[in-house]
Specification:
Order of helices and strands: EEEHHHEEEEEEEEE
Number of strands: 12
Radius of gyration: 37 Å
Largest sheet: 5 strands, antiparallel
Structural class: alpha+beta
Strand content: 25-35%
Strand order of the largest sheet: 8-11-10-9-12
Length: 253
């Protein structure tokens, strides 16, 4: 299915093609999403510069040290020469010391805010990148394309089928078992699957029984399912096979 809404801009496969899990099969038109991603990257770069800069903190500290030095000189002058500096001037210098100290705190808070802003912008980059990637149409399984329902230039919506792929690397074998012969729970046991290839040839594969139906069918049998790997694609879905449950070989979960 499509993950985003938009126009199907590219489709690189057709019916009958083999595809791998994760392979890009097509893409939706993504100009707006690309611009949003580039904008988020630029804003994150600006936020990174602001977070790295400590100019405001250093400037406030220099101003604070200067204010303290001026106050100290004024107090020394009063000790040496009485009334050489007015009390009003002393109050002003003390106020300057207090103000510059507050400026340091304000600059430090601003720097912390800049770092938090950087985290926010970094998250926005990840979100817009993910949204951009969702314009890719990727195979969810390894298999063969059975049907293409949408074509280049057509409008698609999230959840709507674009194409159908039959999984081939892992198949399920279904069979019927006489319940009178099931003296144990075969779930998890190994199975031997023999598939006829014609002209007296056959392929033998090993699998695992994963499901035993709790109800008896109309034929008075019990339906069982086994799964097996088909990486070499030797078996086509839909063919008949014989399956043997190996009672003495239970596989780990």
């Amino acid at each position: 299915p499509a993950s985003e809404v938009g126009i199907l801009d590219k489709l690189t496969i057709r019916e009958g093609d083999l595809v791998e899990d994760g392979q890009i099969l097509g893409r939706l038109e993504d100009r707006d999403a690309t611009l949003a991603f580039k904008r988020a990257e630029a804003e994150a770069a600006i936020a990174a510069e602001a977070a790295r800069s400590d100019v405001a903190v250093r400037s406030a500290k220099v101003a604070h040290e200067t204010a303290k030095a001026e106050l100290a000189r004024a107090q020394e002058a009063i000790e040496k020469y009485n009334k050489s500096v007015s009390l009003t001037e002393i109050d002003r210098l003390r106020l300057a010391v207090d103000q510059t100290k507050l400026q340091i705190e304000q600059a430090e808070i601003a720097q912390k805010t800049s770092k938090l802003q950087l985290e926010l912008k970094t998250a926005e980059v990840a979100i817009t990148k993910r949204k951009l990637e969702r314009h890719d149409i990727r195979a969810r399984v390894t298999g063969r394309v059975l049907e293409v329902q949408k074509h280049v230039g057509e409008w698609v919506e999230p959840g709507k089928t674009i194409l159908k792929v039959a999984r081939l690397d892992r198949l399920r074998c279904k069979g019927l078992v006489d319940p009178t012969k099931l003296t144990f729970d075969p779930t998890g046991h190994a199975v031997r699957i023999v598939v006829s290839q014609g002209k007296g040839k056959s392929t033998t594969l090993m699998g695992k029984l994963v499901f035993v139906h709790p109800e008896v069918t109309l034929k008075s049998d019990i339906e069982v399912w086994a799964e097996f790997e088909n990486r070499d694609r030797l078996v086509r879905p839909g063919v008949s096979a014989e399956m043997e449950i190996l009672a003495n070989e239970k596989l780990a979960t």
